[in-house]
Amino acid sequence: MTGAGDTFSFKVAARDGAARSGRIETPRGEILTPAFMPVGTAGTVKAMLPEHVRATGADIVLGNTYHLMLRPGAERVARLGGLHAFMNWPRPILTDSGGFQVMSLAQLRKLTEEGVAFQSHIDGSKHMLTPERSIEIQCLLGADIQMQLDECPAIPIAEDDARGSMELSLRWAKRSKAAFADFSAQGQALFGIVQGANYERLRRESLDGLMALDLSGYAVGGLAVGEGREEMFRVLEFTTPHMPADRPRYLMGVGKPADIVGAVARGIDMFDCVAPTRSGRHGQAWTRAGPINIKNAAFAEDDAPLDPESACPASRDYSKAYLHHLFRAGEYLGPMLLTWHNLQYYQDLMAGLRAAIASGSLADFIARFTNETGETLV
Length: 378
Prior knowledge:
Strand order of the largest sheet: 4-5-6-10-11-12-13-14
Number of helices: 15
CATH superfamily: Queuine tRNA-ribosyltransferase-like
Helix content: 40-55%
Distance between the termini: 40 Å
Largest sheet: 8 strands, parallel, barrel
CATH topology: TIM Barrel
Structural class: alpha/beta
Number of strands: 16
CATH architecture: Alpha-Beta Barrel
Number of domains: 1
CATH class: Alpha Beta
């Protein structure tokens, strides 16, 4: 594969204001940044073949520790050759720690210094997720980029409560690093997660503590949890300038196209979100003019494709009328085609951002994006 080696590295190739374009090198190939990672929760990007995901331009996908530990089990995936072979995705994979899903999905969860005890939302079975077990699972899966276990409280939250949560996450980061040293393979990377809600001094303390661990990358967590775009951008503006310039910066769980464009302008390199796949399954298509609901009657006799200039067959070769019909008829092909189209839109957006940063024309790109979509980037 292009750029493949036996180590993990990151280089910034161009800057435009706070925005950066660059390249992450992993043993399984390169990741061009800014990068969007399609979400493959249970070992699949829903409604997509792996080769079609790659054809959109995706360099990396995201897998989910919580779901895979419950079904089919990390040890089983390891016996079957690891997650890459299991899901037929030979390129890089990032796995989250499972912590967010434990907090949001699991039943009867109990948080302690040790970790989180919980019952599976699938069958009620009891489990314990600790920083060490989370890293062990991610290494069994064979993830190229792994995330520390953290606690992700919702915003708003009182500052004292946010401090306690942030300090717990920092202690868990230290334990995650120690476990990573025990379990990881050559070329794998561990990222820390900056917490602290929307309090600037807490974010700085969290970041300072993580940087002392000298990790391969740093994520901004605890955003896109209902605080609104303006507040999310405000937190990024006082956080990203202090993040290491020579390490990737990952904004977790973000987001809609306008969120991504604004975050790139504020120095973020990596993103993941279920938005393109989930919205595709429910009839929403992201387009250059903004999102549309293909189930609306206005498209019943619209013979134009979603994007006649796209290289993606789903965007180019099927009319809106046909897509409308598929959703109205409850045919599986509708969600499949719209998901494919949406993932192509997202990857085209990232390619456009990379090109704009490289040419020093990001301001023009943003102006064109806001004019075409009607979005306001605060």
